[in-house]
Amino acid sequence: MLDPYRMVFVNVITSLLVLAGTIIYRYVYPKKKINLFILLLIISILPVISVFRTGTYESGDFNIHVRRSMEFYQLLSEGNIMPTWAGNLNSTYGYPLFAFNYTLPYYFISFFHLIGFSFITSLKLFLASNFVLSGLFMYFFSKNFFKSDLSAFLASIFYLFTPYHLISLHFKITIGEILAYTLIPIVFYSISKFLTHKKNFYFLLSSITLGLLTLSHIFITVFTIPLIVLYSVLQLKSFLKGLFYASGIIILSLFISMYQWSAPLIYRPYLFTTFNFADPSKAFYFPNLIDLLYAPWRFGLLFQGSQGELSFLLGYAQLFVLLIVIILIFKNKLKKEYKPTAIFWIILFFLTVFLITPYSIFVWKFLPLVNQAGSQRLLIIAAFFTSLLAGYIGLTYKKNKLFIYGFLIFTIGSTILNWGHRRLIPEINDSVLKQDISQGTKWGDTHFYALPRWVDQKQQWFAKVPKYHLEILQGKAAIINIYRSSTKHIYQINAQTNIDLRENTLYFPGWIANSNGKNVNINPDKRGIINLSLQRGRQLLMLSYEDLPMFFITKKISLLSIALTISYFIYYLFKRGDDY
Length: 580
What we know:
The chain has 580 residues and is of the alpha+beta class. It is 55% helix and 10% strand. A hairpin with a 2-residue loop joins strand 7 (511-515) and strand 8 (518-520).
């Protein structure tokens, strides 16, 4: 049996077993209520069973993130606790990837590897655990919001089985998005509890989780922050109070995540994107309404095409929920106290859909720091809204069990073809990917935002590893490599004449050179590679990378903010348990 069909077969059988087990439990214990939290946990495991098949994914960014995780772990091992420069990537020419790409997912993957798992398994554990946790955290927030187990269960199921959630998990393998799905519900749970009880514990938890969201995906945070303000105003029914409390949470979270969001601002004069701005109306794809409403494969039930094309689907069940809630509002069948929040989520949903589609291009032109990330990522936020709308279905139809069960089966079953990558390659393991780290640019392992401005516009990335790390351009000398790490290169040189050298590392502010303890000027050549000149004689040449002072300060501010916030948080957790 072909791997994709085997995967679907396993998914169908395990789903039927869960369904049969639930029915049998109800038959054997008719007077006992099903624990919906436990049932949610069991159901959330179904789409991640296929993740643990042997091998790596045939398409998507799985291998890219494994290679980056290897590089990130190496940097941590070298003592770079908050890494910037990825020296082994880009064919060993390196570039400042981790200053501009999200880093929090790589810390989690590195932790899994530290305790003994392979990098491939560590990434799979990251994917699976975040998918399950996203549903559980959505349950906590929804239960607090609706005060109903059934509504919380419905909202969580819809959150888990939103098409784009499964696309990110199995087809795109976008680890920042996967972590964002996990963090968004806990951010709003913490904020909701803080606005209700005004306890420092929840203020700290709100700031920490929002800061972590920024470290997992800045793009999502940019659009979550206005939502936090609006939600706070709605819950407190006061614009000034809502703005005040939300601002406090946001400001502290910005201190926690400062080193991540400040890098594009501090290094802006030195980035390729600053001088090669892409018009979003011409350079980037915006899903149209048809893309959002229907997937063109397998009668609309498969969300990825045979050539790796992706669907950006809102979700059939999700649209059905939207329609039902709108009808309930117009027919006055939704309880009066729930109408304002339901209308609030509906308005935000339509605003988000507008921002996803090409009709909003004129808006994106005013968002230069995020407009190249892709509007389809806002499907994450749209999923949050539609999932909450599903909770209102639980409040209204809680006595109509047949409708609820049928609705859940449709929501889950309509996505079953997408519970796993269609083909895994068992021959590829950590050793294979580790040998290929420096060759990653061949397979699309690039990050446009992190590209220095001095590179060749026509050949921005390097596809071939240089034969030597340090090359003589002019003159005669003998060169011995003494030491090389990602951020420090040391050579012993015996120059018989004055020499011009090329150190095969991309030039970027922060790289400095000294010979025999004296500073040496370095400059980028036409491809952005470090060039320097030395006089004749014996030289101990050292090149090292250090963050610009301002960026270094932001890292220290983030570390201090994280340390103080967590310390205070732990103090409340253990010393003042009655205070929260």
